[in-house]
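Lecture 7, part B: from sequences to assemblies.

Below are the input chains for today's worked example.
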Amino acid sequence: MRWLDRLLGREERSSSVAKTRLQMVLTHDRGDIRGDISPGLIELIKDDIIKVIAEHLAIDPDNVVVNLTRNSRESRLVAEIPLQENGRRKRPT
Amino acid sequence: MHAKVITVTSGKGGVGKTTVTANLAAALAMLGKRVAAIDSDIGLRNLDVVMGLENRIVYDLVDVVEGRCRLSQAMIRDKRFAELYLIPAAQTRDKMAVSPSDMVLVCDQLRPDMDYVVIDSPAGIERGFRNAIAPADQVIVVTNPEVSAVRDADRIIGLIEAEEKGPGQLIINRIKPSMVARGDMLSIADVLDILAIDLLGVVPEDEAILISSNRGLPVAMSATNSASASQAFRNIAQRLEGNDVPILDLAPQSGILSRLRNWVRGE
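Predicted structure of the full complex, as structure tokens:
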């Protein structure tokens, strides 16, 4: 049923998986300017982001993704934070 | 100070450095250039078998460096071309038998009498690689459209720049247009986007390469169809000569129906 997955856009092309993985690993390999940003540091930042946002919104902490991406011109930290269905978290009373 | 010294390297082994060296040397010789190809992979020589000259080796690069023969005695002439020579590597020694300054000296001796010196680098980033790039005026980085080869190419590009031999130029070898078309192989644009260096050429996967190395005949000599590896190497030689030749159009030859069929099958 691979064709169905493709038709529904559920399966990512292996070439784009390869490209994303390469960009990630090269960010780390190149490490010249940003060598102090280790995968461990990214994990720490991710935990802190989850903590701060979870105070205000109901999020899905297991699916939070924080990536450092880099091309020849710029680096950026990209965070993807999925919200839970019922949106705003009830403020503790 | 005449010849241009071009080193072919890659970091990763098995991406086609030796094939590229043999075929570029042959394609340049076919343009009437005087070419010397040097195998700098001491201990694991192979350029001799790919060029089909393995039975004619008497002296090698280490014999020259250690003064056991004159440089001209170690130059094996390929009689199929007007002026193409191979300087083979030694098979029984290791990379430490030659130094970067030895390579510079050998190339300086060749420069007045040649148009091109093409050096086949060993895999890796150690002494053998440093020997190979020391005399280079230009460095060609060979990669394949796969993650391990592109990663190593990126490392090599950084090292070439650190040695002030940059910017390198890229050859993407063994690309399969049908796999690229269905999204299962990194495209030329993907690789260039990641590595951010100039593209010198693209060589398609071609059975003719294995057949020609079986026979010891450079594939650049054979006349085949326009999207072949043979044509790709001849185009790269033209670009080295400063001629503006477009990159091969590697669109799959199939019609829309067979492409749709492949897509449905996930092939």
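Note for the exam: The two ends of chain B are 52 Å apart (CA to CA). Keep this in mind when comparing with the next example.
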